[in-house]
Amino acid sequence: ADNTIKLWDTESGSEIRTLYGHRDCIEDIAFSPDGQTLASGSYDYTIKLWDVASGSEIRTLTGHSDVLDCVAFSPDGSTLASGSSDNTVKLWDVASGSEIQTFSKPMDLVFSVAFSPDGRTLAAGSRDGRIYLWKVTRSVQI
Length: 142
Description:
By secondary structure, the protein is an all-beta fold. It has a single domain, classed as YVTN repeat-like/Quinoprotein amine dehydrogenase (Methylamine Dehydrogenase, Chain H).
């Protein structure tokens, strides 16, 4: 693997552009609801936000201490959730890149994250076989 993301035109089958920036394998990607931003999580412990139209890197989000396993945008696109092998889920402000909140143990490795359609509940699937739910407005597990 070359640690890149390739964007393709599905009608013609031709490559549109390649996104360079991660230093290790890319584990997950997610488009923002408006399709203008792409988030990528990597084995290099970072999340990168990309401008889809230009292919340029908007910013790098750092804060996890292990592999980034999953990323998901909130329905309004203002918040990004990330799950990591460091046993945490983090919420990020997409506009500023700042970390909003961290949800931590007793989870094991986090392999999936998803927002409810109204954006008020966050779900995380863990290697321990459980699904964890949180109210996004509070860091209280429900």
